[in-house]
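Pilot study result, target chain (326 residues):
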Amino acid sequence: MTRPPILVTGGAGFVGSHTCKALARAGFQPIVYDDLSNGVADAVRWGPLEVGALADTARLAAIVDRYRPAAIIHFAAFIEAGVSVRQPGRFYENNVAGTLSLLRVMEQAGIDRIVFSSTAAVYGDPQHIPIGEDHPLRPVNPYGRTKLMVEDILADLAAAHGLRAVMLRYFNASGADPDGELGENHQPETHLIPLVLRAALGLGPEIAVFGFDYDTPDGTCIRDYVHVADLADAHVLALRRLLEDGAGLTANLGTGRGFSVLEVVGAVEAVTGRPVPLRRAGRRPGDPAILVADNRLALAGLGWRPRFTDISDHIRHAAAWMRARS
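Predicted structure:
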């Protein structure tokens, strides 16, 4: 039986590579298109890797013509919110203009289905918790604004030309492949769990905890951590929805449960059996006290059920992958 090819832009990255593994397991053929500016070639194991930039429309069109994918899963984007404040032009050029290049190629090839990797950063500072999809969209940094712009572009193309899009707004992606084949490999790393693990395992510096005076039980920020394997499953479900002629959808991906920075530190100490060196630091601008998803729409619209809702599972999987590489 021929496996339907699916073009995965940014498929050499953290969530993209895990999604490629889930696609292959579900009977699809992932075709990775990645410029490797943030991705890792070694993470592409379940289909071919085609190296290229989104802005290279001719190269992208040639790849689409060669493989004739049934749909696109679009991860390729710059994601560092802090960097986006310092270098907004790069983010608009890559995240927005690059997506327009992809959409032109899709239109020329007659491809009308796309799963888009969006972000909870489109909401900005929360007005209420948990955050539902009807929350006001007021991103506070260029990264969030670029993702919201792409959401708006996709909605306009859906209204004008019948494009079908599922837009998935992640909360905090974390963890690693439970089988130990993939993990988080950002350079530089900015995510909390791998940074805390590195400190505990003696592979990195002490952890700076930004703010102990938030209106939370222990004074530190609370975040909704969603396991990368669960994110991958959601993308496969979103793809199936589109291929089965389901309507477009915009949905949060989170567990609906939050963990504070100090709870993450405590869980890392429990999993590793080692203390985590940390220091107190002042609040960072733009860090809300609590970010937790209302995930009911993803549960109902995709049939998604996150398997790993305990933060200890995220840490255990990430620690196993990190130890195997150290």
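One observation from the pilot: The chain has a mean pLDDT of 95. A full batch analysis is planned for the follow-on phase.
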